[in-house]
Amino acid sequence: MSKNIPVTQPFLPPLSEFIPALEQIWANKWLTNNGPFHQEFEQALCDYLGVEHISLFANGTLALVTALQALRVTGEVITTPYSFVATSHALIWNDLTPVFVDIKPGSFNMDPDKIEAAITPRTTAIMPVHCYSEPCAMHEIQRIADNYGLSVIYDAAHAFGIKYQGQSILQHGDMSVLSFHATKVFNTFEGGAIVSRSKKIKQRVDYLKNFGFADEVTIVAPGINGKMSEFNAAFGLLQLKYVDEAISLREKIDGLYRAELGSVSGVSIPVLSTETQHNYSYFPILIEADYPLSRDELYQKLREHGILARRYFYPLISNMPMYRGLSSSLPDNLPQANLVADKILCLPIYPALEQPEQTRIIDIIRGRV
User: At 178, is the secondary structure helix, strand, or coil?
Assistant: First the structure.
């Protein structure tokens, strides 16, 4: 049998290029806590992403938890059930109540037409997700937030480098939260970041991620330890040199899937927005009723051939034990999200995926194997 093919794989630049940075960290004897690599990496990300204020974190989940703290969010937060569990877990860790709204038909993102009906006197924020790197209906969401005085925090874990109509989508909302996990388009092994809209909010975020320290003897908030190490920051700087190349390779893989699977009966491929500059972070397909196998049967067949496709996102967050008791989790409230969760299958896509391996995946789906 051929080697197993995961759904994603970290992009790793040449190790030889990382050794000098590692030696410099050792020479500096500054391993964490806003060291020189950390400062350089923050500025490099601002330049690359087209934003002014970014705060680095040890991981994306800590960044989500801290973003909610920084904006002093209370009560209820409107969010999506169609995401990775960290989105809702961050709310629970802040003693907030998730209120789920359905996703938009033909999309994997929150349906803005469902938001207003979910707003109550306890609602203080909206937390949408740019799922699979496709931008949310940002202008519509912001209009609603402005009308009701709500904060908007985007879970942008999939959205590194994404532009919509020529502008970074990270400029929308009050904050955007990035993940630099090893499975992402851009990674620092583990890592994350918060993009803030003002210097004042960034300062509060930076206090919160470092135990609340403003200086050696002054603690201004009950913060946590969310800092990114010098090791991760140095690796991020190296990764940034190669990220455009990695995205270009992903685009070619995306194109071959579309060319070969677009005509397969029972396989639906989401159409990419022509107004968006994508990063090709995922390749989702929907397995419809007229495909010869059910979604789970195809999933199992692929695994039997060493293809480790994933059902991202199944089950829905709203169907998990810690969330299904919420009134907003009722399946009748989330028909589109439940439908998509039962059909979704994300195929392997990463820069090191070679064409013969991708062709084998395609052949299995087309029924040639």
Answer: strand
